[in-house]
Every structure is written in structure tokens, then in C-alpha cells.
From TrEMBL:
UniProt protein name: SecA protein
Gene Ontology CC, one term: cytosol
Organism of origin: Tanzanian lethal decline phytoplasma
Residue ranges the record marks as coiled coil: none
Taxonomic lineage: Bacteria, Bacillati, Mycoplasmatota, Mollicutes, Acholeplasmatales
Pfam annotation, one family: SecA_DEAD
Assigned keywords, A-Z: Cell membrane, Membrane, Protein transport, Translocation, Transport
A GO molecular-function annotation: ATP binding
One Gene Ontology biological process: protein targeting
Domain SecA family profile residue range list: 1-215
Record-linked InterPro entries: P-loop_NTPase, SecA, SecA_DEAD, SecA_motor_DEAD, SecA_preprotein_X-link_dom, SecA_X-link_sf
Length: 215
């Protein structure tokens, strides 16, 4: 009534899409209001147009990621969230602010390394024994022991694993160690249609649209 825009925030893309493209959205459009949908699969221009609408349906995570992306942009023309917003309606507010609020939103750069490097790191991780690494399950971190470092240098035929030129390989090795010795399939993640889906530790829900950072 005031002419100010509204965000309607839901916990998953199914609900956002159902409301924006279904009968509820049709009612708003019949009343002369523009309705936008903001989900992961939308292109940059589609998301930009959606943010200009009177009513925007979105997941809470996508709003958060768009905010983070905007704060990484150097050009004003590449910003999504230019418009000032006045109101937000949260569907399942307890899930959004408590359950989902425990999961950090992380923006990571896409790796350009070939898949062979990851395969080599995976093959190396499969050769390790308990004396080659130290695991902290509470913080979900893993580090190589001195014996593990020497084994890596022998495996990859190098003098110093921690040389600056080997930092990408070192990163791949750490990710391989996490995959083999920290993360558990069907507990931390599951594989569905060749996609890795993260499982929320607190709720057991699948975090659709989320990815492990940088590989």
C-alpha cells in the first residue's frame, strides 16, 4: 500500500518458486504488482531484474550470497542489490534465524586446476596410515605429520612440499585428506545425481545450493 518493496524469504528454492510462479504470485500480478524470483539457477540479469520488483521471493542463503558478491564487486554496474528495501517477511523464521543461521555463507573462487591434480592427491591420500596425519574432529581440520610430509615429498618427487610453487598441490592434498578421513558419506554429505549435497550437522537437512569451499 505504501509503494515500498517487500522481500519474502523462504528456506528453500521449491517454496520460493511455488509462491512466485503459482496462484499467490498470480494474485499479486493481477493487482498490478511486479513479482520477482531469486534462486541460484537464475542468470545475473534475471536476478538483477528480480531485485527491482515490488515483491521478491528468495531463499535466505541466496540473499546472503548476493550481499557477499555485491561487497566483492568493484563496478557499480555489477551490483545486484542497488534498490533500498523496506520490509521482509520470513517464512519459517525459526529455521532461517536459528537452524540456517548456524551455517556460515562462504564465497570461494572457482579453481582452475585440472582434475588430474585432484586425482593425484586422492591417490596419495589412499596410501596414508594413521601415523601420517593428525585429525581434530571437533574443528574438522587435518594436518600432516612430519612422516606424512616426507611421504608426500617422496610420492610427488619433490624436495619441499611447502615451497611456494607447490601451494596448489598442498591445498589439493589437504582437501583429499578431509574427504578421506574427516567427512563421512550420508552424514556430512550425500551424492545424488552426480552432485555432492551438504548435510547440515544441526538439523540433518540437505543444504541445497551450498558447496564446500574451494574444492
Amino acid at each position: 500500500l505504501s509503494g515500498e518493496s517487500v522481500h519474502i524469504v523462504t528456506v528453500n528454492e521449491y517454496l520460493a518458486t511455488r509462491e512466485a510462479e503459482g496462484p499467490i504470485g498470480d494474485i499479486f500480478r493481477f493487482l498490478g504488482l511486479s513479482v520477482g524470483l531469486n534462486i541460484k539457477t537464475k542468470s545475473f540479469q534475471e536476478k538483477k531484474d528480480a531485485y527491482k520488483c515490488d515483491i521478491l521471493y528468495s531463499t535466505n542463503s541466496e540473499l546472503g550470497f548476493d550481499y557477499l558478491r555485491d561487497n566483492m564487486e568493484m563496478e557499480l554496474s555489477n551490483l545486484l542489490m542497488k534498490k533500498e528495501y523496506s520490509y521482509a517477511i520470513l517464512d519459517e523464521v525459526d529455521s532461517i534465524l536459528i537452524d540456517e543461521g548456524r551455517t556460515p555463507l562462504i564465497i570461494s573462487n572457482k579453481t582452475r586446476q585440472g582434475i588430474n591434480l585432484y586425482r593425484d592427491a586422492d591417490r596419495f591420500a589412499k596410501t596414508l596410515k594413521e601415523q601420517h596425519y593428525i585429525v581434530d574432529l571437533e574443528s574438522k581440520t587435518i594436518e600432516s605429520t612430519e612422516e606424512g610430509i616426507k611421504k608426500a615429498e617422496f610420492f610427488f618427487q619433490m624436495d619441499n612440499l611447502y615451497d611456494n610453487k607447490n601451494y596448489i598441490l598442498l591445498h589439493c592434498i589437504k582437501n583429499a585428506l578431509k574427504a578421506h578421513f574427516i567427512f563421512e558419506k550420508n552424514k556430512d554429505y550425500l551424492v545424488e545425481k552426480d552432485q555432492v549435497l551438504i548435510i547440515d550437522h544441526f538439523t540433518g537437512r540437505i543444504l541445497h545450493g551450498r558447496q564446500f569451499s574451494d574444492g
